[in-house]
Task: structure prediction
Amino acid sequence: MATIESVLEKLDANRDAALQRLFALIGIKSVSTDPAYAVDCAKAAEWMAAQLRDIGFNADVRPTTGHPMVVGHAKATNRDAPHLLFYGHYDVQPVDPLDLWESDPFGAKIVDAPTGKQIFGRGAADDKGQLMTFIEACRAWRDCGGLPCDVTVLLEGEEETGSPSLPAFLAANKKELSADLMLVCDTGMWDRTTPAITTMLRGLVLEEVTIRAADRDLHSGLYGGAAINPIRVLAGIIADLHDSKGRVTLPGFYDDVADLPEDVAEQWRNLDFDEHAFLGDVGLSVPAGEADRSVLEQIWSRPTCDVNGVFGGYTLKGSKTVLPAEATAKFSFRLVSKQKPEEIANAFREFVRARLPEDCRAEFVSHGASPALQLPFGSETLSRARRALQAEWGKEPVMAASGGSIPIVGAFKRDLKMDALMVGFGLDDDRVHSPNEKYELSSFQKGARSWARILAALAA
Amino acid sequence: MATIESVLEKLDANRDAALQRLFALIGIKSVSTDPAYAVDCAKAAEWMAAQLRDIGFNADVRPTTGHPMVVGHAKATNRDAPHLLFYGHYDVQPVDPLDLWESDPFGAKIVDAPTGKQIFGRGAADDKGQLMTFIEACRAWRDCGGLPCDVTVLLEGEEETGSPSLPAFLAANKKELSADLMLVCDTGMWDRTTPAITTMLRGLVLEEVTIRAADRDLHSGLYGGAAINPIRVLAGIIADLHDSKGRVTLPGFYDDVADLPEDVAEQWRNLDFDEHAFLGDVGLSVPAGEADRSVLEQIWSRPTCDVNGVFGGYTLKGSKTVLPAEATAKFSFRLVSKQKPEEIANAFREFVRARLPEDCRAEFVSHGASPALQLPFGSETLSRARRALQAEWGKEPVMAASGGSIPIVGAFKRDLKMDALMVGFGLDDDRVHSPNEKYELSSFQKGARSWARILAALAA
Result:
């Protein structure tokens, strides 16, 4: 087994080539939610499989009813090495509104910012840049003689749409994908120089509802006043979903929500989290969630309900005096602790049905559901990862939580009983899911070094 | 001056040619609200001017800052004939959602229905078919020797977008457009065999509001719970605009609304209006307006507020876990009696501003405003028109009201002090503004005969 020093030297020597590989991956338009990009998603999967084969993995692309999976296996040089499963996703969010991007979202490049160099492009951070930190660490170990742990890599192309194909794939390949520990690189650092390990993830329920009234669009002059307007009905439902103190009003919504253990709450209170700067960064000044919770609690450990999109009637330029036949809204619920996705989805549907006036019907579509996840504190795995990160960054990593979901982590915990070590190098200002997404060049380079160290630490 | 009998014979003899002319007009895609169809609007204006010149009018196309006007003048054969101004509009509503049309909206054709033949296509009724009834009546008079009245024709191309260019055009051409009486053919019959004269029109205020919050779209996982969601704010405003009894809650909204005179209310109560059938025709069963008003009052003589369109966040297929930066809604207010458009628009804007939480801003766009209009009962003009319609249809015409707006009628009343005689031949099931718009062939043919008779009656 090579020394960690030689592996780190190898990474530093090959930085430019690593960047070119990431640029090539960002250039593939793997937008998973829009069927128009299905071919690009397949292309990204093939590209990833080729990468893995190039560094000695036995890797291939596996079809699903949606976008394909990539699976690769590589053996360690030593016999009793632990077996790790790395998970990442090669799909990205849509780029609309396109006119807000400063340049081509798929034309990756280096941008000079006051705080340092940045990698620009859709997926630069989420998750192409992040997952490539791990792949580059594996490449460096391989170039120095071989991996210190058995490694299985699983990359999916549907993370941004709720991972619909994952449960079946997991069930069908349970044995092949089982390992001692799962590694994920899809989370963030505490700040530009302080690493973090994410020990809690919020779950996610995605629901879409369409309210229908008349059997056609009507003239608002001829029918206005007499015919029910489904936009008004939908608006009433959206408005009812929160009370005046920012709490979600679904019956039973908070029943399975446990409060934070006091020691974690204490650690969070001592973090130098600047609520004002956090909101100010995006042009806001006042926390809009539950009135009696800190912003850090609101985004890390409290459940939420948001409308992600709404549409109905005439939405183009100008006016049209139409009384529309239907209106649609897309909702996401973020879940914590033991909230059950099915129960929340059902409570939402009941809530809507209870508010339908006569002549209105509701149709529901589920876009996915996954529970929240908490990793036990104080495990040996966590201690080794902390020491590895401390060595790279010179600072104790923060035991963080994340408001965003990584559905697969919950699925693996549920179905394969595997814990996940979540270490990522994103920053709050990476603009993931927004125009002008970026990833710090230092995150990419020191991220790869961090994974090289973690592999060594877990193998020891 | 020719006899009315010879003019009616001429109309009957030339029915096929008249239909071909209407088909040609429907074939021009003059959708006024969408800038992509500006060239088609100009083409429709040129086509109309050529029509008018073909039947002896001195006619031309006049540019505006929006779509052009068509103005034509023709003199009567007799000296002391009254001077009439006919108003119509050559623009049509958008055709979306296109997939609900049974065939090309701009490919006009005759369709056999159980109740008789129908003319199919966008604008078949509103207003291309309707305005051509008057033009064909003029053509027949001309073919029989000349018009019995001085006639000015004014056709605009912005009626469906609130007639933004009209006030300035009216002011600039006040003398040229002034006449003894205005004629409009943009309203409906009481039923398939009973004509109607529309004596009341609701006014219209068109307002669009965009609520903005964060300076970019956010990830609902990273910011959900802490960042204000503008869709939720907009939904609250929409929900607040009506109380539980269906009344609009804008302060002062009903201050200038007079109740119907008892004799008109009595006439309406005696009409065989079938609320159940009216709503049932479009798949509804329960009146949704003010709880203490009949449906006929709700749509003819009560003010309303409707959302015509709403959009914000992710609106394509699938899901996107975005917390959007903005959300927009388009509203139409229908006004009655002495409600003032400016006051209603201002009350709406105040209402929105009063409900903006911190960190939210509202931007407003007006898409037009016009007051309601009431024509005095018992005038000589009205008596003559009633007799002419009675002669053609064999039934006393209904003194009706209309829930839809014709902004120009209000503008002419306000600026030129002209009353308007509104006679139209549309039916409630014409699907104006909706997919599969149609116009009864009998409306087109007997409508032209009705105008021929009205011209004779007014000249007598």
